[in-house]
Write a structure and sequence with these properties.
It contains two helices and three strands; from the N terminus they run E-H-H-E-E. By secondary structure, it is α+β, with helices and mostly antiparallel strands. The chain has one domain (7-92). Strands 2-1-3 form a three-stranded mixed sheet, covered by helices on one side. The two termini are 25 Å apart.
Length: 92
């Protein structure tokens, strides 16, 4: 029996602008957790606030997602917390 093809993941250019972590929340900042979930296809941009959606740009189909950072000065450490479901590794 042939294997099913791997799922096609969305391609985004994502800009993380928050050093915080926690449950996915529609607020003013895109966290690393939210960016990873978007890249893995487990979070849809429609679940974000308009401010967060502005930090999510479509990428070329099949190119994968890219995560960049625009963190506040002096707040460049992101400490993941054990608040939520475990993050899956980034898909390649």
């Amino acid at each position: 029996e042939p294997e099913a093809p791997p799922p096609v993941l969305p391609a985004y250019s994502l800009t993380v602008n928050s050093p915080l972590d926690g449950p996915v929340t529609a607020d003013q900042a895109l966290t690393l957790r939210e960016a990873i979930e978007l890249a893995n296809g487990s979070l849809a941009p429609e679940q974000l606030s308009p401010a967060e959606q502005a930090l999510v740009q479509p990428g070329a189909a099949g190119s994968g997602s890219q995560i960049g950072f625009s963190l506040p000065d002096g707040q460049t450490t992101i400490a993941l917390v054990a608040c939520c479901q475990r993050l899956r590794p980034l898909a390649w």
